[in-house]
C-alpha cells in the first residue's frame, strides 16, 4: 500500500524522481533547525539508494548512539533517542558503500516545535504590527527561537515531501522577520514563540504554513470533509466571485489542496503543538459547517501527525487558536459572531468537551479601523500572541495558576425585571447599555436568528456577577447573549474582563432559555 502510494507520487510529481538516487534529507530538514526534545523522539528521514545502509549520528554535548537503518523504496527514516533541550549539535547521515554520500546538518537545537497555520492574520508579518521597528530590532536577541516557513504550494494529491521552503530553517533576523508584507515571517507565530521562549528558557522551533484568504476546507483532508458534508464544493458560491479573475487564488480555495501540499508533507516531523488563526474566509462560506469542520480538522491533524511521526507526536497535541477579531464597525451582519461561536464548537470557550487540549485567544477587543491592510487585519498582534501564550502555558505545559480564559458565565438567573449573570471568578465590569441583549418574543422561541433581540442594560454588578435589566421586554425572555456583534467594542474597552483586565470575556449566546 505504502509502496504503491509512493510509486504513485513519484510518477505524479515529476521532480521527485530525481531525488531517488540522490542521498539527502527530506526538504524541510536543514542547518539551524529545532528538533523536538524529550520526552518525544525526533524523526529524521530522507532519500537514498534502495537497500543501502544509512547511519545517523549526532555530534555535540549529549551522547547519542548511532542509528543504522536500511533504505526502503528510496526512503530511510530514524527516530533519535529522546534528547534534552539543548544544543548545538551536528547531525550526520552517511549512506554506506557510496562515495561522498554524507550529509551534515549543523547547529541543530533540541526544543519544542510549534506549527503555525491559518490565513492572512497568521501570514501577517512582524513588519506590519504596531511598533514594528522595535519588534524587528529585537529579533537577534532570540537566536534560540528558530523559524521555518513552507512556500505556498497546492496539490490535488497528498505529497510526501514539502515542494519548497519559503524560509529554510534560520536564526531570526530583522530581514527574515520583516518582509515582504504577508510573506515572512508571521507576527503571531514569532511573538508566540518569543514569549514562550521567555517562560520555557529552552529552544523553540516555529514552522509557519499558512495562506491568506483560505477557508478551512483547503486545510482539511477528505476524511474531515466527508464527516462534515463538505465534499461537494460549491464553486458558484458568491464568495468565489471576487477571485474569478485570479486563477491562483481560485485554486487555493479548492478542498484539501493545502492539506495535501503544505500540511501532509510535515506529518513525519515530531511537533509539540500547533496554533491557528483562520475563519474569516468561512464567515460567508459554509459558515454553519465550521462547527463541525474545525474540531474535525483538529482531530484529523492530531491523529495524522501522531501516525506520521511513528507515534512520537502526541495523539492529542495541544492546539491553540485565535477567535476572530473584527471587520466592519457598525455591521449588523452575524457572520463574525456566528463564526466565533462555531470556532468553539458552540461552547463559547476552550478547551471544552468537544475540543480537548485546545486553548483560545479572544481578539474581539482589538479592532483597528485604520489598519493600512484593511480593518480585517488589526495591527495589534502582540496581545493576540500573548493571550495564546497564556493558553499554551496552562494547557500545553500544565503550568498551575495561569489564567488564560476570559470570564464565562456558569448560570443565568431570571428574577423579576432582571437577569443575574453568574461567573465563577471575579470580573472587571464597565457599564454598557447594549453589550448584553435578550431575545424578547411573544411565544417561547428559538432565538438563533437575528430577530427579536433587544439591548439589556447592565444595571448592577458585584465581584462575580452582572445584573442586566429586562424591564423593556413585555413578552417572554427566551435568550441572552453577550458581545454578539462583528465589532462589539472599542480597543480594549469591552465591558467585561478578567479581574486583572488582561483577558476579555468571550462572546456567548443562550437561545433556548430559561
Ligand atoms: C559542526 O561542524 C562544524 C564544521 O565542521 C564545526 O565547526 C562545529 O564545531 C561542529 N559543531 C559541533 C556541535 O560539533
Ligand atoms: C510520513 O507520514 C505519512 C503519513 O502518515 C506516511 O504515509 C509516510 O509513509 C511517512 N513518510 C515517511 C518517509 O516515513
Ligand atoms: C507600542 O509601544 C508603546 C511604547 O512602548 C507601548 O505602550 C504599546 O503598548 C506598544 N503597542 C503594542 C501593540 O505592543
Ligand atoms: C432553531 O433554529 C435553527 C435555525 O433557525 C434551526 O436549525 C433549529 O432546528 C431550531 N431549533 C429548534 C429546537 O427549533
TrEMBL record:
Q: Which domain of life is it from?
A: Eukaryota
Example of a GO MF term: sialate O-acetylesterase activity
Ranges for the Sialate O-acetylesterase domain? Answer: 112-327
Instruction: Give the keywords, sorted.
Output: Hydrolase, Signal
Any coiled-coil regions, as ranges: none
User: What Pfam families does UniProt report for this protein, alphabetically?
Assistant: SASA
> Mind listing the GO biological process terms from this record?
carbohydrate metabolic process
Signal sequence residues: 1-18
- Establish whether keyword Hydrolase is in the entry: yes
- What SUPFAM superfamilies does the entry give? SGNH hydrolase (SSF52266)
Which PANTHER family does the record match to this protein? Answer: SIALATE O-ACETYLESTERASE (PTHR22901)
Q: What is this protein called?
A: Sialate O-acetylesterase domain-containing protein
Q: Which organism is it from?
A: Megalops atlanticus (Tarpon)
